[in-house]
Amino acid sequence: MALQTAPEPLYAITPDSEAREFGGGVRVRVVRAGWFRPDAGGFFGVVPRPLWSRFVEPDERGRILGRLNLLLIEAGGKRLLVETGCGERMTDKDRDIKGIEGGNPAVALRELGEDPETIDFVIVSHLHYDHAGGMVDTEGRPFFPNARYVVQRQDVEAARSDELRQQGLMEREQLELVRRAQQLAEVHGELEVVAGISVLPTGGHTRGSQAVVMGVGGDRAIFFGDLIPTRWQLPVRWTSAYDDYPIQAIEVRNQLLNRVVDEGWWCYFTHDPGELPIQLDRTEKGAIVARAE
């Protein structure tokens, strides 16, 4: 069957002249590393189709078109990449089922004029295939040979566990290859990776999911990972069928979104095909929504 037609080029990056700058001299650009097509039912969980279909329509196989968004950050004299896409270590059948186009982070960066060897840190929000699948190449070598890969210890433990829920869902082999290359930075809790860039544990989606907070003072931005994968899922109760801990996800989403609105943070979403970043507002009834342009 034909894929949905992607409305934009396979790879794209925010022009350097249009990079967003946040407090402390943190500069952020969005890297579009490809497309994928998750199952709409899984993506929106128990949310009825009449509600989510106001934002996006599925293809003939019941899938929606989403982006593989990475962030390229310059802060504290270092270069950081947030997320690694899905990489290439999967079968053609899996790529067809998931509707993947592109997804190799090193190829995307090179196509866009950026050198993977200049990356000092790779922050992985969690260890699912579409976020951690591009940690290493088909030969098992880290795509970013000079980088430390920052992963929460709780997600490492989940990936290495024998829990039935996790089997085959997390990039355990790639994780171990990064560890073997002595490039794994296993962290526990909130941590400033470099000046102006912090990881913030959220849980909810996976046990060790983490968000990334960029900037200092009152001029900040946040990358939610799969806690809130697109602007379509801003309603706090709209959890995904892929969330391991949906009750926790709702509570953390509510806390974070209220903080984002109250403090005026900008927002980046991992699978959103729209323009990024955006800001949020609170309606008269208390709902949190994307700010009208």
Task: Give a structural overview.
With 293 residues, the protein is of the alpha+beta class. The chain has a single domain (12-290), classed as Ribonuclease Z/Hydroxyacylglutathione hydrolase-like (Metallo-beta-lactamase, Chain A). It has helices at 40-44, 49-52, 92-97, 105-111, 129-132, 153-160, 172-180, 246-263, and strands at 12-13, 20-22, 26-36, 66-75, 78-82, 101-102, 121-123, 148-152, 184-187, 191-194, 197-201, 210-216, 219-223, 266-268, 280-282, 288-290. Strands 1, 2, 3, 4, 5, 6, 7, 8 and 9 form a nine-stranded mixed beta sheet that branches. It has a five-stranded mixed beta sheet with strand order 10-11-12-13-14, with no helix packed on it. Strand 13, helix 8 and strand 14 (266-268) form a beta-alpha-beta unit. The protein is globular and about 50 Å long. It starts with 11 loop residues before the first strand and ends with a strand. The model has no long low-confidence stretch (mean pLDDT 95).
Structure at a glance:
This protein has 293 residues and is an alpha+beta fold.
| Main pleated-sheet profile | 9 strands, mixed
N- to C-terminal distance? 37 Å
CATH topology: Metallo-beta-lactamase, Chain A
What is the fourth-level CATH superfamily?
A: Ribonuclease Z/Hydroxyacylglutathione hydrolase-like
Output the CATH class name.
Alpha Beta
Average residue pLDDT? 95
* CA-atom Rg in angstroms: 18 Å
* Share in helix: 10-25%
Structural class: alpha+beta
Oligomer: single chain
Low-confidence stretches: none
Report the count of strand segments.
Answer: 16
Q: Per CATH, which architecture?
A: 4-Layer Sandwich
- Shape, principal axes of CA atoms: globular
Proportion of β residues? Answer: 25-35%
Give the H and E element order. Answer: EEEHHEEHEHEHEHHEEEEEHEEE
**How many distinct domains?**
1
Number of helices: 8
